[in-house]
Design goal:
Shape: globular
Structural class: alpha/beta
Catalytic activity: dihydroxyacetone phosphate = methylglyoxal + phosphate
CATH architecture: 3-Layer(aba) Sandwich
Radius of gyration: 13 Å
Bound molecules: 1,3-dihydroxyacetonephosphate
Active site: 62 (proton donor/acceptor)
Strand order of the largest sheet: 3-2-1-4-5
Order of helices and strands: EHHEHEHEHEH
Family: Belongs to the methylglyoxal synthase family.
Pfam families: MGS (PF02142)
EC number: 4.2.3.3
Number of strands: 5
Length: 129
């Protein structure tokens, strides 16, 4: 089974997301990836991953990913949030994180938890090979 992973990063966390995706590139390349617009654009251009890009976060991208998740199409969310910068679409961000909690979907909102989640999924994928 291909893991279906959503990747999202706020602007000040995008460099962290690129470094994370580069580190896990071999594994992520085996997954079905979805991302918000700008994050997805950078993952494609700078890491070389295949990504289904949704709208940018402030234009509804978090909501699009939340909708997929509610429909059972997302197994895990890596959402590198910036807790220091107010976001115009804060309600959308909260809606996505809430949907993860409602549907018991893993949601890593910082780098440390993202590493834990990705290394575990990577290990599971390797064990199934
Ligand atoms: O704002 C975001 C998540 O809330 C991310 O959107 P972008 O990837 O388009 O910057």
């Amino acid at each position: 089974m291909k893991f279906r992973i959503a990747l999202i990063a706020h602007d000040k966390k995008k460099d962290d997301m690129i470094a994370l995706a580069t580190e896990y590139k071999a594994f992520l390349a085996t997954c079905a990836l979805t991302a918000t617009g700008t994050t997805g654009g950078r993952l494609i251009a700078e890491v070389g991953l295949e990504v289904d890009r949704k709208h940018s976060g402030p234009f509804g991208g978090d909501l699009q990913i939340g909708s997929l998740l509610v429909e059972g199409m997302i197994d895990c969310v890596i959402f590198l949030r910036d807790p220091m910068t107010p976001q115009p679409h804060e309600p959308d961000i909260n809606a996505l994180v809430r949907a993860c909690d409602v549907h018991n979907t893993p949601c890593a909102t910082n780098l440390a938890s993202a590493h834990l989640v990705l290394s575990l999924l990577q290990q599971r994928a390797a064990n199934k090979e």
